[in-house]
Specification:
binds beta-D-glucopyranose, 2 domains, 13 strands, single chain, 247 residues, alpha/beta, Nucleotidyltransferase, domain 5, 24% strand
Length: 247
Amino acid sequence: MEILGIDVGGSGIKAAIVNTETGELISNKHRLKTPQPATPEAVATTIQKQIKHFKWTGIVGCGFPTPLQHGKCLTGGNLHENWKGVLVNELFKNKTGNDFYIVNDADAAGLAEINFGAGRAKKGVIIMITLGTGIGSAIFVDSKLLPNTEFGHVLNKDGIVFEKYCADSIRKNEKLSFKNWGKRLNEYFKHVNLLLSPDLFIVGGGISKKIEKFKSLIKIDTPIVAAEAENEAGIIGAALAAKFEIK
Ligand code: BGC
């Protein structure tokens, strides 16, 4: 089955056609900048441009970077406050005419890794953590997703939301060395490890390519590996979510 996967992020909106049987991209990846401000109308216009680029008439799976419940934004996340309460699939369908399945972006990345990547054929509790503009989480038990978890929003010892302390955007904005950023990540992973005792952590987001620069600073017994599909996991998983009709 071929499905258009779209990954909406804080800085880019990426899309490609995905073969959902193999998890491979069967088109080039097309990236457009996330409009600023990222209001619902502005983002819907960029989504429409992606649909036109691919001349796509079929269903679309879309990873979305806000807390969601049944496709409705609970907050605007790192996009824009006007997203709160928006049913994303309806907005995008009205704009494009296509049927959309909306899934949290970290859940999408996790689905790709569980089906085709670092979590393939593994039992137990697996947690995907995406490090990008924010921090996203996806939790799987024997390959089954517990949707819409928000483990980027737990607090550190100073009461600061971890995503504002050690997302990759914080490393960049505060010009942190990998050593100093790694110390923060160590606090974060120790905390999540204590809360959930997983069997495996998979790290996603663009920075997962450079996992060797910070992995040794994370002092937990649970294994940590990089997402095999790297930054494409979000697109592949968005298409899978549409196939599985995950909401
Ligand atoms: C949002 C999550 C999202 C993560 C990564 C967080 O700010 O609350 O829903 O998965 O950013 O984009």
